[in-house]
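S1.2 Input.
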Amino acid sequence: MAYRPSPPEAIASLPPLSRPQLSETRRVRAVELFEDGVPNAEIARAVGVCAESVRRWRRLWEEGGASALRRRAATGRPPKLDDAQVEMVRAALEQGAQAHGFEADLWTLERVGTVVERVTGAVLSRASVWRLLTGRLGWSLQRPERRAVERDESEIARWITHEWPRIKKGP
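S1.3 Output.
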């Protein structure tokens, strides 16, 4: 029995899967192959995992069916901010830091934490603010360029062409 991947054009039209979604997709495909009687080694090659994972999946599938291999809801403490509050924070952050009384229009974790507290009443640690920005809002770290505001490009070009050759040592 031969297994072929999906055609590239079909894959390109799909949105990228998150890691948990990709893992569940692999397990669902493995269940289809279990039901067709495909050996574990072939399933492992077909879905791109090690044979031990397939053996574990098969054992779970035999004990609890396909639902035993479905993704479960995240465990642990629920997030402090629900989706509506996250959208309120997003809207507040998009107004800019100066709109919230900060001197420069630059977001830091402390400033974002302050805005989150003002908007939602929830106090977040620096780590939680970072997870909010990167995980839930999709923001990334941006470092401002270190350049003087008074920088004069024409004067720099003149210095490089006239002064630098005069004081440079050697050829």
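S1.4 Remarks. The chain is about 55% helix and 0% strand.
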